[in-house]
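Bit of a strange request maybe. I'm writing a small parser for structure token strings and I need a real example to test against, not something I typed by hand. Could someone generate the tokens for this chain?
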Amino acid sequence: MEKIKKVLEENRVLLVLAIILVICLVVFGIVAITYFYGSSDNVYGNRLDKTKEVPLNKKLLSDIESTLESNESVKETKATLKGKIVYVNIEFVDATKMDDAKKVAEEVITLFNEDELEVYDIQFTITSLSTADFKGYTLMGARNSSGNGTLVWNNYNIEEESSAEE
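Reply from user aminoacidic:
Good idea to test on real output. This should exercise your parser:
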């Protein structure tokens, strides 16, 4: 016991510094864990808070599908909601012109009310398969709720890219 007291008295400064170091490491660990992992179980964080104030009517998704399927140029459609994004996939019959397909998709936006358009993003995926007489396309469009309200289209045609490589 005498030896321990003597070592502690001789190394008092080192002992205090070691205790301070351990306390700092514990505090740093707690701060790092709460910062990087957080306490929220929500995958989206607080990005979906507005969706609680303006819930999307589930009937709207079926209305989108039925409205699109009533058009004779639409072959198949699917509308889903994930987070705050409404995904609308439309497959058109062969030989549907791209401009006509865009107009059909833009009609979907009229089904939303103003409050829903301010909260939810809408993303379109439009496809039309190629035939012997018609060159198919894949077209994607998006309307951002925080943007200026316009629908932005992006034409990415895989067939054109593969033929250009050959």
